[in-house]
Write a structure and sequence with these properties.
0% strand; transmembrane helix; DUF308 domain-containing protein; membrane; mainly alpha; DUF308_memb; transmembrane; 87% helix; globular
Length: 153
């Protein structure tokens, strides 16, 4: 079987797991990110005893422990990403409205509207971790279908 089809099937299965078990998958992602940060912090401290490495190591260990025991990393990171994308889209839309010829004003207004929607999704995903897991599940299924039906290169 082609690698794209295998990746597509695995992506669809993972997406379904995220949708069917959003709390478990969201918590698992948070724990995996926390453990990764914990190891990063330890490695940073042990690599070189410079002030910068020790500070980075301590911060990574603190955030790692927070993600393992307290914060839902998935909704936090997804919400943060939506905020950044929303702000950038609004800025690009405003720049498009004030730009000269060659830029569609309607497209710029639509980009601003999508930016506002992205900001709303960011706030919603921060307050509802289940939403973040389901949204990632839908994205994984969409990507999996695209990989599975993509023509062979």
């Amino acid at each position: 079987m082609e690698p794209n089809k295998v990746s597509g099937i695995l992506s669809i299965i993972l997406g379904l797991i995220f949708i069917i078990f959003p709390l478990v998958s969201s918590g698992l992602v948070s724990i995996m990110i926390g453990v990764s940060l914990l190891f990063l912090g330890i490695a940073s401290i042990l690599t070189e005893f410079s002030a910068l490495n020790i500070i980075i190591g301590i911060l990574a260990i603190i955030f790692g422990l927070l993600f393992i025991f307290n914060i839902d990393a998935l909704s936090f990171l997804l919400g943060f990403q939506f905020y950044i994308i929303g702000i950038l889209m609004i800025l690009i839309g405003v720049a498009g409205i004030f730009a000269g010829e060659g830029v569609s004003k309607i497209a710029s207004i639509l980009i601003i509207i999508l930016g506002v929607i992205a900001l709303g999704l960011g706030g919603f995903s921060l307050t509802q971790p289940i939403f973040a897991a389901v949204l990632i599940g839908v994205a994984l299924i969409t990507q999996g279908v695209r990989l599975y039906v993509a023509p062979k290169n």
